[in-house]
Specification:
Helix 7 packs parallel to helix 13. Strands 1, 2, 3, 4, 5, 6, 7, 8, 9 and 10 form a 10-stranded mixed sheet that branches. The chain is of the alpha/beta class. The protein has 2 domains: 158 residues, D-Maltodextrin-Binding Protein, domain 2, CATH 3.40.190.10; 148 residues, D-Maltodextrin-Binding Protein, domain 2 (3-Layer(aba) Sandwich). The chain is built from 13 helices and 10 strands.
């Protein structure tokens, strides 16, 4: 009799846990908290599902959550991963850690924004740009290419975020693909020898330029535009926007956010509902018109973007996008990481 009572209590407790889990969706989110969390309230109001987000630190952006998902693969805790880039998404896909799902909300998106196996969808892109302090660098002297920043005239005047993390790491892997391994290695060595300043994240890059601590920085449009709209003396440059004769695939790198459901997620039904919502036209429009200023990939979305934010060719803009093969860049990830770790280990 006593054993029966104990088992009954355990059954009720477990059922309660299951009901509690079904009322929330666990989201691992590499997108900046200030940009992401504003969209969750409406989802909860409509679905009656709470979103339990887990954010990464700025320094470890996307990479830390990637490693956590890999560690948890046998007992997933996460339902949906909102990644702020694409290469680690492809790496998760290739490890079989993602659940296929064709969201109805993704139907209008271009083919390149959806994986062939239906495990992820790209949305809300940012561009990797140069932010320049207008007081320190007259317009006629501003660089036009990423490659210009290895020149002696910019010695000790350039900042980048830690190159092993986030979109800075994605950019490095894409440059290894586009420039070729040896030329890319030479470029990063030249930057190091030219006194490039390493700061914790892209936001800190933009702030350092705005304060005049450095003249130029590599950053993302969302971080750069915040300094523009705050009235700081900065300007944005979309590097290699006209292409490059020596490296014809070079251009401005546009990096999308990506959404995916984790294989074996505790709340698969809630995960699908959250993905549908985050891929909706209203969310892309909201992200574009909020302070994040992210560029919609859904062609049906019309949004008022600041004049400093430019769209790529083929999406209503005039900027030549970098012709990066994200799959190949993902293949090169470990090689690129090892190289950067060795070159910038003390930074």
């Amino acid at each position: 009799m006593r054993m029966f009572v104990i088992l009954s209590v355990l059954a009720v407790a477990l059922a309660g846990c299951d009901r509690a889990a079904s009322k929330r969706v666990v989201l691992y989110c590499a997108q900046d908290r200030e940009f992401a969390e504003g969209v969750f309230g409406e989802f909860t109001a409509r679905s009656r599902l709470d979103v339990a987000p887990k954010y990464d630190t700025e320094a470890d952006k996307s990479v830390g959550l990637f490693h956590e998902l890999v560690r948890e693969k046998d007992r997933p805790r996460c339902d949906v991963f909102w990644n702020n880039e694409i290469l680690n998404t492809i790496r998760l896909q290739r490890q079989g850690l993602l659940e296929p799902y064709s969201s109805p909300a993704a139907e209008p998106f271009p083919v390149f924004a959806k994986s062939s196996d239906r495990t992820w969808t790209a949305f809300a892109a940012r561009a990797r740009v140069l932010i320049v302090n207008a007081n320190l660098v007259p317009e006629a002297e501003r660089p036009r290419s990423l490659l210009d920043l290895a020149e002696p005239k910019w010695k000790n005047k350039v900042a980048i975020a830690k190159p092993l993390f986030g979109t800075t790491a994605t950019q490095a892997a894409c440059l290894f693909d586009v420039l070729g391994t040896e030329r890319a290695k030479a470029y990063y060595r030249d930057l190091r020898e030219n006194g490039v300043q390493i700061v914790p994240g892209n936001k800190q890059v933009a702030q350092a330029v705005a304060k005049g601590h450095v003249a130029i920085g590599f950053t993302d449009t969302d971080d750069a535009i915040m300094e523009v709209e705050a009235g700081q003396p900065v300007a944005l440059i979309f590097p290699d926007r006209e292409g490059n004769d020596e490296f014809p695939r070079l251009g401005t790198l546009y990096i999308p956010n990506t959404l995916m459901i984790v294989k074996g997620s505790p709340n698969a039904d809630g995960a699908r509902k959250l993905v549908d919502y985050l891929l909706s036209a209203e969310v892309e429009k909201r992200l574009a018109e909020s302070t994040s200023r992210q560029i919609p990939l859904n062609p049906n979305v019309t949004a008022n973007l600041p004049s400093a934010i430019e769209r790529p060719r083929g999406a209503g803009g005039t900027v030549k996008p970098m012709d990066a093969d994200f799959g190949r860049a993902a293949d090169m990830w470990d090689e690129v990481q090892n190289f950067l770790r060795n070159e910038f280990a003390r930074e």
